[in-house]
């Protein structure tokens, strides 16, 4: 590796063989020296989980002309082990994705893709999570890869504020339909649970988690609004969860 | 159940048999009708993970004079399945814990205990995560249970702002040494990874995630400061991860 090129760590939550991460690897190769450390199997919905009750494995994989690393853990494990055991120095950029499926609004909190980016921010690495609003394995990542390169270039040029990473979602439409990029806030939304109750062949109940996405936000400055109107959404995202505005009132409680 | 009593959902991440949740159940019984839905095994470090690639089981367990529910999933799964499949109505309060070990500062983001409380806040349930700064199975939960009752009573009386739950940590000292309760902010801190590399009996490498906690924050208004000075720390915690202050500057980028 040439030492003056930016060093770019790439991970995801759909696993190292997913089409989304392959598209991201190709988009990032133009910008710097890439190192891929990604889960060896799908890890969607893992949030900020880390592996503390069992062990981790790392396997080298040769693909796309690179030596990559498949890790048996979660996306956040991948970031941690990359920093401690694989990378020659702190990377200049961490990119995660391109996720198969949206991580806008409340989905940021369940997303392994975004949790990897948040972990990067905790480690003071400029970090971005990319997601395409299409869950399918056959999704077309061309537009998403195009915007991933643009946003990544901007982050390499401008840096990011301390404690902040980016949550970038790309609408599932062709490049010429996308109207541009909007910096926005996370929409207020939630999932309404609808567990699918079934019986196994032995008559015992089991459940599949399913749900309905409910957008509670009518603002036009949100990521949901941007995506519904064919803009790429970029939400600056932080790991300081303190509700600073609530502190003053709560100090009046008698505890 | 008497319908005028507050309905209190109790969960945790150490599992339904952990001493910490048993202490919390006993503390909450005085305040209302409790329903326990908790993981059937330890789920520490699961963050906001949900189970989407496999199925969930629920088992009834009789203990402490209650019918409780052991769930095969994560703490967040427990909250979701409780709401959809177990509770007769939306609960008046969700409490999670008492965790065996601190969830102050950056630990909030890895914690299954706190993620359950955050999930409650997403569902508009007043929610609190409690953690004792002692990882041991033999920890003394007396002081923690005492303050859990006080904080829970305050939340039942005052409610919480929309989108906010509480992260409550209790120092590991006897009740008479605790100086009081401080409402504070999440300290800036991180874990410095130190993976423990070993070889299995077949000569293949594997890794244990370990690390060193690094407090980067010298503020006296943080949860770390409070705990180090024998105060109970209460951090109002939100799931809007938007770094609102960063939006204005980023709008100047050319994307």
Structural notes for this entry:
The structure is a homodimer of 255-residue chains. Chain A is globular, with a radius of gyration of 19 Å. Chain A has helices spanning 19-28, 75-86, 112-122, 142-158, 223-228, 244-250, and strands at residues 7-11, 33-39, 58-63, 66-71, 93-100, 127-132, 164-170, 180-183, 189-193, 196-199, 205-208, 211-215, 231-238. The longest helix of chain A is centred in the middle third of the chain and has 17 residues, at 142-158. Chain A has 255 residues and is of the alpha/beta class. Chain A has a single domain (7-187, 219-250), classed as Stationary-phase Survival Protein Sure Homolog, Chain: A. In chain A, α1 (19-28) crosses α4 (142-158). The first copy, chain A, contains six helices and 13 strands. At the A-B interface, α2, α3, α4, β8 and β11 of A face α2, α3, α4, β8 and β11 of B.
What is the strand and helix layout of this fold?
2 copies of one chain form a homodimer.
Chain A lengths: L6 E5 L7 H10 L4 E7 L18 E6 L2 E6 L3 H12 L6 E8 L11 H11 L4 E6 L9 H17 L5 E7 L9 E4 L5 E5 L2 E4 L5 E4 L2 E5 L7 H6 L2 E8 L5 H7 L5
Parallel strand pairs in A: 1-2, 1-5, 2-4, 5-6, 6-7, 8-13
Antiparallel strand pairs in A: 3-4, 7-13, 9-12, 10-11
Helix pairs in contact in A: 1-4, 2-3
Summarize this structure briefly.
Chain A is α/β, with parallel strands linked by helices. Chain A is built from six helices and 13 strands. In chain A, strand 1 (7-11), helix 1 (19-28) and strand 2 (33-39) form a beta-alpha-beta unit.
Keywords:
homodimer; 255 residues; alpha/beta; Stationary-phase Survival Protein Sure Homolog, Chain: A; nine-stranded mixed sheet; 6 helices
């Amino acid at each position: 590796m040439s030492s003056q090129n930016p060093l770019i760590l790439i991970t995801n939550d759909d696993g190292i063989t997913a089409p989304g991460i392959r598209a991201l690897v190709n988009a990032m190769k133009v910008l710097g020296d890439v190192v891929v450390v990604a889960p060896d199997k799908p890890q969607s919905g893992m949030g900020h989980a880390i592996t503390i009750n069992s062990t981790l494995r790392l396997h080298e994989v040769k693909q796309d002309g690179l030596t990559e690393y498949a890790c048996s853990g979660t996306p956040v494990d991948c970031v941690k082990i990359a920093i401690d055991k694989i990378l020659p120095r702190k990377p200049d950029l961490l990119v995660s994705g391109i996720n198969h499926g949206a991580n806008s609004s409340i989905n940021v909190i369940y997303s392994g893709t975004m949790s990897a980016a948040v972990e990067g921010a905790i480690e003071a690495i400029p970090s971005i999570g990319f997601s395409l609003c299409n869950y399918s394995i056959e999704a077309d990542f061309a537009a998403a890869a195009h915007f991933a390169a643009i946003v990544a270039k901007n982050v390499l040029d401008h840096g990011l504020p301390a404690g902040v990473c980016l949550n970038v979602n790309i609408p599932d439409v062709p490049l010429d339909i996308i109207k541009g990029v909007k910096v926005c806030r996370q929409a207020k939304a939630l999932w309404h649970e609808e567990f699918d109750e079934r019986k196994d062949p032995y008559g015992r109940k089991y459940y599949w988690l399913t749900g309905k996405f409910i957008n509670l936000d009518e603002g036009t400055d949100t990521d949901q609004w941007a995506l519904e109107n064919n803009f790429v959404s970029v939400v600056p995202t932080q790991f300081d969860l303190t509700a600073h505005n609530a502190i003053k009132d709560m100090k009046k409680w008698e505890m």
